[in-house]
Design goal:
Layout lengths: L1 H12 L7 H5 L5 H11 L1 H9 L1 H6 L1 H24 L3 H22 L3 H21 L5
């Protein structure tokens, strides 16, 4: 059951193996649509995992899989973001990487939840200036 919850959260948050939709979705017509994806929508999957923490605490395998997916996705997002030259793509892959950090923190449990809360705030704040300073067409 926990792995099915994780699959749903991966789809919502753009985590491996379902990460390919997020950069395409953030290419929307306005920077505001990128901000909505980066700051609010994609964090819902992490919130699902955090709210389901009692279930994941009962299954160490589930926690390990959450950590592994988070770690792999954050590395994938970092590498892919460095390879892009379009600012929206860089922002999208940076968002994937930051959400990977959040998955890793939630998967570790315990004191890492504080890191998850701080990542959520930082990802929201750091995405805002990049989106609001972009020209509107």
């Amino acid at each position: 059951m926990t792995l099915l919850l994780l699959l749903g959260a991966c789809g919502k948050s753009g985590q491996f193996p379902l990460q390919s939709w997020l950069p395409d979705a953030m290419e929307g017509p306005t920077p505001v649509s990128a901000l909505i994806h980066a700051a609010t929508m994609v964090t819902a999957g992490v919130y699902l995992i955090a709210r389901s923490a009692p279930l994941f605490n009962l299954t160490p395998t589930g926690q390990t899989v959450v950590c592994a997916i988070g770690a792999f996705t954050l590395l994938l997002g970092c590498i892919a973001g460095c390879a892009k030259d379009d600012i929206k793509k860089v922002l999208a892959w940076s968002t994937v990487s930051q959400i990977g950090y959040m998955f890793l923190a939630v998967g570790l449990g315990g004191p890492a939840y504080a890191r998850w809360a701080s990542s959520t705030c930082c990802a929201t704040v750091s995405s805002r200036p990049a989106c609001s300073s972009a020209p509107v067409r």
